[in-house]
Amino acid sequence: MTREDRFTSRIPGVLVPRSLLADPDRFGGRSTGDCLSGDLLIMDGQAVALEASDAPATRMVLPRLTEPHVHLDKCHSIDRMQGVGGDLHAAIMAQRADKATWTEDNIRLRATRGLAELIAAGCGAVRSHVDWGDGEEPDQPPMAWHVLGALAEESRAVLQRAALTGADRMADPDYARRCARRVAHDGAVLGTFVFDQPDRAAGIANCFREADRLGLALDFHVDEGLKPGLDGLEMIADAALETGFEGPVLCGHACSLANQSENDLARITDKLARAGIAVAALPQTNLYLQGRRAGTPDRRGITRVRELQAAGVCVVMGADNVRDAFCPIGRHDPIGVLSLGVLAAHLDPPFGDHLPMITTNARRALGLAPQTVDGAAIGDLLLFDASSTSDLLSGTARPRPLAETIGTRP
Ligand SMILES: [Zn+2]
Predict the structure, then answer these.
(1) Distances (CA, A) of 12 to 24, 42, 328, 406
(2) 34-49: per-residue pLDDT in tens?
(3) CATH of the domain at 52
(4) Could you say which of 67, 117, 210, 224 is catalytic?
(5) Which of 162, 202, 278, 312 sits 20 to 30 Å CA-CA off 153?
(6) Alpha carbon distance 324, 70 (integer Å)
(7) CA 310 to ligand 1 center in whole angstroms
(8) Is 117 tagged catalytic?
């Protein structure tokens, strides 16, 4: 048998970012910036190697993307509202008023569109929060929970639901127990909004206790603001370290890290790293809501992505709100969100270093096994029209499933 016969397919002229290979030194190909280039060799339905070739490399191979933080219950609701604009509090009030008029059909229509957009952008896994609203019984999910549950069953992508409760509600041990039991029953994630609630420490403690008891993943919206004194992120890290909780724990926003002195920042990021807590930077919504004042904003509201990464914290990036009261524009598109994050957080080249935030690290943060290109099933791989990682982040063309190109040996 010749070497060629061992391979069932060959895809000529592709690039693979080194950051998305488990073992780049053994994958073959030719070093091309922060990528390897060559012909991709497929054997038994898996990507096994690159072979250096003279074919021009104009397409890039990536594993399916992961969206770690969206709100499919709220998305695409902006046209239902009039004159929305303002800070986080104004957005919460506007969205609450609109939510009172939601119907099952309306939620399904909007969430289906949001999920379709994510899949078209290349997502294979998505976590959506669902407001677990005021006044409802702790073990009685809102209408949107059921709608997203049905979507999850039908979807080609993994769709995780996270119940978005408030730390004040979770401070009641009975509420926390009943809510967590329902979340566990539905195979979902326990989530909580932590801001400046007086009893937030009790709420956080109850989340960890219930998650530990029931084997749940945790997801916090935490310190979504730039006012001084927000301390939820460190409270969560302390709770994780004290309880020895094994996770996964994902903390979204953490805007107020921008307020911390160098010493405080070093202490908090060290605790997050030791606790294995991942942080989601959410540039779309933060840029719109944070740092509001009479004129043009001079603060960005993005968490300290670079310092967190330097401390060894797993940092991921998500779309958060798309066309709702929290962010009246935006896209369900991880490549587009990462591109915005590059500008907002000054993430310098090589851009391949940042791709794990929407792929391998994003999957880790959701408690899923990371997928790299080497050894991946072809059904888990995508082809983007891009000749470099800068080109990838600047392009708007949709990816194609790599499997569609198989079967045409040149
Ligand atoms: Zn959110």
Answers:
(1) 18, 11, 42, 11
(2) 999 999 999 999 999 9
(3) 2.30.40
(4) 224
(5) 278
(6) 11
(7) 24
(8) no
